[in-house]
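Input record, target 12 of the design panel.
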């Protein structure tokens, strides 16, 4: 009896769900990002609430475009409309979401008129409009009870060392947001940070003295450029992440499906970062630098000195300090941007809170502040000119601080070593070896403006990176397509694969769909591979896995 070998390309789908080959206008996605931000600002929506509407708009757009073009696993919708206009679907989905959230706004109707005018009349346009309405309605229904408008009674802690004291002249910011349903996480506490450092620790001491010097209203040690960095990041971070995405898209235009797949994960990552951060903040209720500095005589630390008149460069937001919200959101955004465009990638954009002074960022991601050098007066040494070199490593959720033996001397720019002791005791440090300027700016900005201790920002940045990586590994995944596959005369099997996205794939093989082994690695683009091992196999299965 002749044995028939079964050769199956096992992926998430066996249909020809290819990324668009003919470039289409991607601006409809970024245009509606701009409109969504404007609608939120016009409605006076502040705090973290805009993360929800941005995610709703862009996930609805993504599912609508994906239903028309294919190429990725959907977030929610299982619709397929290959003949529909993807542009019309994206515009209508965004419009439907914004009108449901902001029924009296007029900006969405104006934007829809512009978007649909660019699409020729006919059945594809009509089908696209219907598709956009359907994906928006499905997503809005799924998120209707997500907790965004829950009423939560919050009681601030009794004032004391290390405990947050709310400002009395402003409302407490969104204490209920920790209870909002995440977009990609199992729960708000999945990436919760560990507790803040003890008030007598070296980490806290270094951070206290740094922000006291750099973050004051009239800080004499803060440079004009550092002040600009602080003011640039006064704009909310999830808006800055969107500005960066639009700048990158302008520099390197993407097909429509890929543009939708940029803004959807970007805003889901930012939304989940905000939920995580609010869970962390209202779990620990750690005090803000202004309270800490004014009450340093109560913290039990002999190396912190109180200043009862100290104020931050700007009034701090009315929510607990730990961990840093700006770094967690900006780092989450940076991870998504780097995944799409690669790193390094240079973008220049302006912040509304520092008009006329755009900033250029040469890198998107990598772990912010892999190593932070701090050199300052050492009061413990008790003599002028003594310094302490603190080497901070942020490889874990709790950075460690090591104090170098005294005295020390600088070795080149951005490094220091002990002047005494064997070379093994030296602690060299290159502060920006692995740090991206985009994320590092957010970390430094919160010190320069007096909002966050550096450790809080480092911890926040690490949480943001973890959230984004989790999302990128599990949601809106590119679907590789088996273009063709055929047995060859010598018994080998010829497999042709078209990958989607910039990250490489591994083709794995199996004889039982249970145990898989790598066969070809680091594959991108159009791949054609011959498997001679198929000749000796009674059956052989294949799957493509993104690294």
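The sequence produced for target 12 reads:
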């Amino acid at each position: 009896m002749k044995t028939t070998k079964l050769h199956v390309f096992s992926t998430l789908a066996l249909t020809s769900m290819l990324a668009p080959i003919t470039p289409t206008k991607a601006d409809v996605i970024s245009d509606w990002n701009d409109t969504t931000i404007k609608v939120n600002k016009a409605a006076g929506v502040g705090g973290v609430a805009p993360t929800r509407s941005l995610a709703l708009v862009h996930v609805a757009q993504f599912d609508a475009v994906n239903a028309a073009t294919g190429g990725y696993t959907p977030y929610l919708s299982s619709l397929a409309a290959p003949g529909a206009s993807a542009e019309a679907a994206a515009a209508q989905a965004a419009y439907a979401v914004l009108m449901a959230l902001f029924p009296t706004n007029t900006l969405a109707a104006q934007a829809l008129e512009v978007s649909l005018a660019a699409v020729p009349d006919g059945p594809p346009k009509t089908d696209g409009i219907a598709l956009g309405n359907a994906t928006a309605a499905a997503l809005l229904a799924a998120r209707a009870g997500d907790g965004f408008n829950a009423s939560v009674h919050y009681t601030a802690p009794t004032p004391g060392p290390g405990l947050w004291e709310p400002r009395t002249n402003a409302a407490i910011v969104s204490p209920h947001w920790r209870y909002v349903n995440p977009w990609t996480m199992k729960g708000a506490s999945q990436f919760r940070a560990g507790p803040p450092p003890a008030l007598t620790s070296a980490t806290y001491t270094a951070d206290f003295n740094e922000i006291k010097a750099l973050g004051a209203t009239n800080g004499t040690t803060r440079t004009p450029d550092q002040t600009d960095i602080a003011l640039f990041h006064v704009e909310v971070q999830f808006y800055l992440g969107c500005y960066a995405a639009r700048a990158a898209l302008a520099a390197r235009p993407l097909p429509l499906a890929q543009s939708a797949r940029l803004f959807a994960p970007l805003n889901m990552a930012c939304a989940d970062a905000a939920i995580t951060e609010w869970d962390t903040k209202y779990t620990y209720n750690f005090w803000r630098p202004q309270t800490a500095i004014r009450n340093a005589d109560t913290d039990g630390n002999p190396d912190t000195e109180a200043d009862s008149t100290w104020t931050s460069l700007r009034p701090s937001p009315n929510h607990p300090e730990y961990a840093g919200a700006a770094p967690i959101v900006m780092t989450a955004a940076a991870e998504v941007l780097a995944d799409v465009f690669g790193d390094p990638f240079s973008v220049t954009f302006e912040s509304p809170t520092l008009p006329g002074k755009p900033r250029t960022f040469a890198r998107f991601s990598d772990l912010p502040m892999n190593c932070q050098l701090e050199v300052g007066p050492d009061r413990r040494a008790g003599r002028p000119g003594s310094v302490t070199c603190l080497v901070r490593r942020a490889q874990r959720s709790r950075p460690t601080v090591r104090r170098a033996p005294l005295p020390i001397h600088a070795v080149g720019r951005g490094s220091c070593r002990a002047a005494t002791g064997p070379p093994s005791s030296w602690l060299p440090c290159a502060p920006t070896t692995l740090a991206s300027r985009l994320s590092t700016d957010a970390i430094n900005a919160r010190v320069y403006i007096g909002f966050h201790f550096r450790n809080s920002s480092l911890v926040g940045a690490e949480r943001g990176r973890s959230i984004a990586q989790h999302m990128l590994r599990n949601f809106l995944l590119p679907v590789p397509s088996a273009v063709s596959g055929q047995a060859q005369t010598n018994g080998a099997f010829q497999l042709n694969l078209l990958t989607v996205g910039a990250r490489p794939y591994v083709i794995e093989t199996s004889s039982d769909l249970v145990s898989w082994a790598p066969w070809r690695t680091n594959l991108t683009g159009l791949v054609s591979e011959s498997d001679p091992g198929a000749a000796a196999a009674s059956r052989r299965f294949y799957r493509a896995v993104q690294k």
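The chain has four domains: 6-13+478-546, 27-142, 177-367+435-474, 370-434.
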